[in-house]
Structures are given as C-alpha cells and as structure tokens.
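Students often ask why inverse folding is considered easier than folding. One informal answer: many sequences map to the same fold, so there is more than one right answer. In these notes we will look at a single instance of the problem. The structure comes first.
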C-alpha cells in the first residue's frame, strides 16, 4: 500500500458518477486536496437513470444546493414511490411507497396491528394507511414536517430528473469550487514498478496526469480498476438474468404523476419516469428470452407521446468488482458494478460510495485496514440491494418462461431467510444502515402475494374494538390530510 500523503486526486470519467464524486470531495476535502477530473466529450454516458430515492436530498443539502434551483435546472418532478404493475401476475398492482405506514404501539409495528385485522378478514388494504401512497395516486404533494399531534411523519420524497442536466449542474458547481477539468481521452495508464499502484495517466494529446489517489468513474469499461489493475468481476447473472435495456424519451402526453411506474412484460419490465418536459421510458429484458428488435417493438407499443429520441440498446452484466478499492484506485458508479434500475439505486450508491471514501479517506497514506473496511461496507450494501431486487423477481405467479425461471432459481441464503421469516409472522430484521427499511420489504412481499401466517402477540394488547377504532382513525386521518394537500402540479409551478 502507498504510504505517502494523499495530495492529488484524479477522477477518470464524468457523467453523474464523476461529478457527484468531484463535488462532494471538493466540498468536504477541497482545502487539503488538489482534485482534477479527466473526461472526453467524445465519450457518451449511459445517462438513462432519471429516478432517485429520498437520500438524494441529503446529497444536495451536503452540497448546499437550493432545492428550487435544482428542480428548475434538471426539469425535476416529485417522486413518492414506485408503482409495480403486473409483477405478481397480469392485472395486479401495488406501490413501494416511501415513508411511514400507519402508527404502531409500544414495541409493535403497525404492520402487526394491520395483519391481526387482515387475518380475520378486516383491516382493508395495507396501502390505505400510507400517506405517500394516497398522495401519489391523487397526484398531490406539499412539504411539511409532520402531521401535528399524531406522531406520524411527513411525505417522504425523492425526484425524477434529467441525469444529464444534473451532471452539468454538478460540473458547474465543482469547477466553481476549484475542481480542474481536463478534456481528453486516456491512452495509457502507468503503474508503479514496485507496488503496482497507478502512477499516472497519459492522454491522447500527450498530456501527462499524475496523482496519488485515482477514482475510476469510467463506466462499464472500468478503465482503471479493470483494464489497468486487472481486478476481476463477480457475475450475478444467475441471480438477475436481465442483461439488456432499451431506452427512449417521449413527449409528455399527460400531466406528470409523482411516482415511477414499473410494468412487468413477458421477458422483463418497463420503466416510465415523468419529468416536467418529457417522459423517460425503457425496457429491461433478458436477451435469451427477447431479441433486441423485439424489445424495441415491445417498448414502442407500450408508450404514449411522440418520440424525442431514437431507441438506444444498452448491454450490461449484473454484478460487482471483486474489490471496489484496489491499491490506490477506488471504483465508483458503473465501474464498480451494476444493478438494474428497478429500485432507482444507481445514483444513491454513487453517493454512499463517495461518502464512505470521505469517511475512510487515506490522508497520510493508504492503509490496508481502511481499504478492507471500504470493500466490506460496499459489498454489504450491494448485496443488500441485490437481494431486494431479486425479491421482486422470485415472488411472481406469471406463466411466461422468463418469469417461471426467476421463480424457481436458487436465491441467496440471506434472501431466503428474510422471505421465510416474513411468511411466519411479518418480521423483517435489517442492519441499522440498510438502505431498504422494514416497511419497504413488507410492501414488496405483501404486494406480490406473501401474506404472513401469524402476527406478533403484542398486537393482542388491543381489544377488537380498540383495534378497529385504531385502524379506522389512522385511515381517516390520512384521508383528511391527503384531501387538503395541493396538487403536485401546483407545487412544481410554484417554483
């Protein structure tokens, strides 16, 4: 490991990953580091990720970005959750809504109260007790801290936005803050003869770029982590068999709704992400079950509005690098691995990777213990997200060969344990830093047909009448609050 002090950080690759990395580093460590980013206008970005999850607000706040300015600059709309259509079987629909569900009692989550009632044939729909869901389906939104005097929280939200515009927004931010941008293609990478660390880059122009720490944001290619350092790739295709996507932009055919749509088809699923000025559309599919031509045809048959771009096919291999940080190189974004965008996690995992690097930053030289801890935390996060995505696929009742293969495939023991535990009594146990909360897992499993066989006995501390009144009051309160909310459109227009 390099023992010398880290003074010069070189980021290879721009796009959302590169400029998030540059912006956070310069914001938090810019006084003690020289930071440059090498990118070429000749190389395009994947750039189809247009949906996010709530922690993006933390990222923007850390950078001191004004929300209204961000929404205007990126043509953003509000996202309150993801609606899953046809995932269990054709005609079914449920939402992974952000935020709180109902209100529990001491040491007893709300899901246990609802489940006690539901197992007796009462209780209504689980989503009757989600403020986020009710607001999303009625296209309403407002910002507030909590529902007064109830102990119930506010609307939890993320954004739909133009990822390309966000990258440009962050580039301006980073360059104003002192990041040096170098235009050019990397022609070769020079390694240290003794330890094998990256010493410098040579660009096609002949320019020579030296650094102490290199960050690979070069996308699927993995120019530094893969090509130069030869770090292997752990393939997860046997767990997530989709290996292709086709993306296209359309004009808005109707008012933007404050949620993403994920629509299952015979050999994959379709996304629909409404921005202020257009809609992002795509189809994720398995090349073994559907040709590229067939995928394009399927997507075009299931979209509204005139095309604003030509369909673009993207190939990928789901998985991760064997090491995310190797020697003096940290891979971030697609260079580190890929998980399909089913739960809109790509940008978030860039955010957490950079945050993790800053917390473990090797100011006085790279130490093996810090590298090992970075890799451990990152792998844990990626496997947690991987299992959550697999959950959607394995819990299906569809008849097509693609879906039947997903249903019958061998899944990680970590995921099997979670499903079995939930089937028994709706229990979900996550680590304290897990991305997806207990209620997120509950929604997917209930939404795709897993009804627990029993509930926690604490739920019996309420009489039947008390339980009925408790559920009725929570449902009524959510309905009243939703009715008073302004429209999503009025919130956007107000900015």
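Output (designed amino acids):
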């Amino acid at each position: 490991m390099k023992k010398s002090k880290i003074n010069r950080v070189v980021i290879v690759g721009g796009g959302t990953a590169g400029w998030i990395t540059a912006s956070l580093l310069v914001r938090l460590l810019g006084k003690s580091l020289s930071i440059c980013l090498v990118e070429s206008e000749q190389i395009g970005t994947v750039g189809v990720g247009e949906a996010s999850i709530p922690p993006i607000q933390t990222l923007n706040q850390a950078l001191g970005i004004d929300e209204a300015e961000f929404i205007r600059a990126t043509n953003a709309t509000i996202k309150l959750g993801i609606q899953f259509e046809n995932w269990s079987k054709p005609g079914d629909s449920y939402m992974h809504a952000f935020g709180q569900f109902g209100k529990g009692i001491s040491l007893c989550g709300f899901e246990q109260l609802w489940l006690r009632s539901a197992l007796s044939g009462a209780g209504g729909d689980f989503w009757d007790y989600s403020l986020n869901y009710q607001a999303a389906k009625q296209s309403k939104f407002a910002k507030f801290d909590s529902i007064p005097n109830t102990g119930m929280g506010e609307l939890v939200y993320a954004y739909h936005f133009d990822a390309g515009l966000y990258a440009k927004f962050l580039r301006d931010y980073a360059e104003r803050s002192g990041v040096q941008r170098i235009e050019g293609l990397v022609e070769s990478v020079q390694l240290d003869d003794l330890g094998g660390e990256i010493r410098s880059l040579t660009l096609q122009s002949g320019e020579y770029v030296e650094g102490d720490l290199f960050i690979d944001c070069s996308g699927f290619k993995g120019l530094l982590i893969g090509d130069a350092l030869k770090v292997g790739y752990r393939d997860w295709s046997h767990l997530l068999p989709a290996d292709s996507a086709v993306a296209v932009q359309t004009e808005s055919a109707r008012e933007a709704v404050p949620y993403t749509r994920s629509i299952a088809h015979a050999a994959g699923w379709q996304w629909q992400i409404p921005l202020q000025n257009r809609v992002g559309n795509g189809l994720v599919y398995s090349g073994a079950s559907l040709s590229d031509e067939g995928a394009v045809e399927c997507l075009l048959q299931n979209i509204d509005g005139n095309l604003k771009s030509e369909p673009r096919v993207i190939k990928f291999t789901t998985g991760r690098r064997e090491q995310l940080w190797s020697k003096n190189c940290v891979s971030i974004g697609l260079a580190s691995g890929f998980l399909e965008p089913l739960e809109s996690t790509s940008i978030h995992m860039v955010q957490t990777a950079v945050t993790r690097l800053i917390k473990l930053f090797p100011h006085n030289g790279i130490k093996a213990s810090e590298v090992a801890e970075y890799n451990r935390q990152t792998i844990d996060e990626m496997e947690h997200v991987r299992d959550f995505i697999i959950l959607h696929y394995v819990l299906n009742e569809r008849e097509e060969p693609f879906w039947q293969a997903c249903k019958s495939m061998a899944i990680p023991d970590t995921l099997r344990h979670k499903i079995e535990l939930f089937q028994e009594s709706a229990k979900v146990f996550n680590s304290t830093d897990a991305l997806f909360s207990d209620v997120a897992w509950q929604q997917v499993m209930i939404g795709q047909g897993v009804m627990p066989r029993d509930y926690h006995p604490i739920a019996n501390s309420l009489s039947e009448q008390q339980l009925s009144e408790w559920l009725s009051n929570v449902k009524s309160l959510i309905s009243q609050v939703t009715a008073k909310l302004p429209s999503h459109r009025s919130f956007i227009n107000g900015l």
